[in-house]
Write a structure and sequence with these properties.
Length: 495
């Protein structure tokens, strides 16, 4: 490729540095299309190649050159866009350049334990061909293993703020050699009340450090934190970068009540080719109940929520990864930080409280270039909330119905919502009501299943029972063809 440089461009090339990396030049930044152009350490490049990544994602292409150039950075990007690698790859590159010391050089702070585990795994994955020692310091885990890690030299620390503060107050950690501080999901750390801890931790690191802040959104409160902790940061905003519709197919169903939800879930379990799914519940008790109901039907399922011990939570995620369980019924602790490539379905049994969690939740499927289906149930009382989510993701959702399981109520039109009118019960043509129920779910909870609609792919450990109907996703791809044929019989509603 030939670049024509204007005199202004030539003047911006730093003359003092004969080896100036072309990536660091502003006018070339948008032209980064391959990992080779990023000039990362060859061992990192080799690991990326093994992961099968052919080119950097937009967040990687936009942020890595600035990070490598040593700049502070604020990046707004949705989950599932490859943002973890966007900070880990340059962090590993930094480790590869400097001299190995006894003290940690990179500190990554993240709000949840699951996210910390995912980041630690990613460090292991991208750093597998280089000498990089990583310690994960998260709450809810025994101290013994963490103390053992801290008794040896370590390059990268991945931590949740509470446990890190705990180690610091016991003088087990020296952050005076930190060269790079990374705040991942900073908006969430703010929401969870960790920000004072984050500021205290930052004070213990050298002022000369490089600071990177990743967040789905940046509001006024976060802007204050940014002014406080970062120096002239570069801002990259890819928060409105939409997930490709081909990647995650989103479906929405209005429900009358709890029983109607159960019936719809039953329908999808019986009729969808679900390979692995996360079912999101609003409450811990309901997550437990749903998981129990599924197990009673011989579905390999488990619950995941904040009341469970961290070791059990880790084990459950590991079982989902290895295919020992097929359904994870979770609260929003699982909305972020679960990176399992073969989750074919996310079911929002209850809508999330915060709109941004919708994006995080559905981002558990359709990962790493694969396809996925996100199914969401909304009660009529939550219709306004559904519209909020629509506005947040910048898409107008169309509602689907299952023949025989259409809702009895009707949805108010959007204009009624905006004018605050009450639904007067008049048909508005939102749903085509059917009098004959083609699908009859059992009246009390889930019915016992007759056949299993799932077959684990070879080598995944498999489930105990197998069905006549098999589903072998090739490369984790959802069989959309089948789904589309079936959906032809659905009464789709268009608003
Ligand atoms: P994240 O947004 O960090 O949660 O990453 C989402 C998924 O994208 C993870 O499963 C990564 O393994 C995958 N990923 C990261 N970078 C790339 C890339 N350049 N090409 C393809 N997949 C990627």
């Amino acid at each position: 490729m030939t670049y024509i440089l204007t005199p202004a461009m030539v003047r911006s090339i730093p003359s003092h540095d004969a080896n100036a990396d072309l990536c660091s030049l502003p006018f070339l930044r948008n032209m980064i299309v391959t990992f080779a152009q990023l000039n990362l350490n060859p061992n990192i490049f080799k690991a990326i190649d093994i992961c099968g990544y052919t080119k950097p994602t937009p967040i990687q292409a936009r942020s890595i050159p600035d990070i490598l150039a040593g700049k502070d950075l604020v990046a707004s990007a949705q989950t599932g866009t490859g943002k973890t690698a966007a900070f880990i790859l340059p962090a590993l590159h930094k480790v590869s350049l400097g001299k190995s010391t006894q003290k940690p050089r990179i500190l990554i702070l993240t709000p949840t334990r699951e996210l910390a585990n995912q980041i630690t795994d990613a460090v292991g994955k991208y750093g597998k061909f280089m000498q990089c020692r990583v310690a994960s310091l998260v709450g809810g885990m025994p101290y013994r293993q963490q103390l053992r890690k801290l008794s040896k030299p370590v390059d990268i620390i991945v931590a949740t703020p509470g446990r890190l503060m705990d180690h610091m107050s016991n003088h087990r950690l020296d952050l005076s050699s930190i060269e790079m501080l990374i705040l991942d999901e900073a908006d969430r750390m703010l929401d969870m009340g960790f920000i004072d801890d984050v500021k205290d931790i930052a004070k213990m690191t050298p002022p000369s450090r490089q600071t990177l802040l990743f967040s789905a959104t940046v509001d006024d409160r976060l802007s204050q934190v940014i002014r406080n902790l970062l120096k002239n940061p570069i801002h990259i905003n890819l928060s409105h970068e939409k997930m490709s519709p081909a990647q995650i197919k989103q479906e929405f169903y209005m429900v009358d009540n709890a029983k109607h939800k159960e019936q719809l879930l039953q329908y999808f379990l019986d009729n969808e080719k679900v390979f692995k799914a996360i079912i999101f519940s609003a409450t811990k008790s309901n997550a437990d109940k749903l998981a129990r109901d599924l197990c009673n039907q011989d579905f390999p399922a488990a619950a995941l929520h904040g009341d469970l011990k961290q070791s059990l939570r880790n084990r459950t995620i590991d079982q989902l990864k290895r295919g020992k369980i097929q359904f994870l019924v979770a609260t929003d602790v699982a909305a972020r930080g679960i990176d399992i490539n073969d989750i074919t379905h996310v079911i929002n049994y209850d809508l999330p409280k915060f709109s941004e969690d919708y994006v995080h939740r559905i981002g558990r499927t359709g990962r790493a270039g694969k396809t996925g289906i996100a199914i969401s149930f909304s009660t009529f009382a939550e219709a306004k909330h559904l519209h909020k989510i629509e506005r947040y993701v910048g898409q107008k959702f169309s509602l689907s119905t299952v023949p025989g399981l259409e809702p009895r109520q009707r949805l108010q039109s959007r204009s009624d919502h905006s004018q605050g009118k009450k639904n007067e019960g008049k048909p508005r043509g939102d749903f085509k009501q059917k009098s004959d129920r083609k699908y009859r779910a059992s009246e009390g909870g889930f019915k016992k299943r007759e056949g299993r609609s799932f077959e684990a792919p070879k080598g995944s450990g498999g489930f105990k029972k197998r069905s006549k109907r098999s589903f072998k996703p090739s490369n984790g791809q959802v069989d959309f063809k089948h789904r589309e044929n079936k959906s032809a019989s659905f009464k789709k509603r268009d608003n």
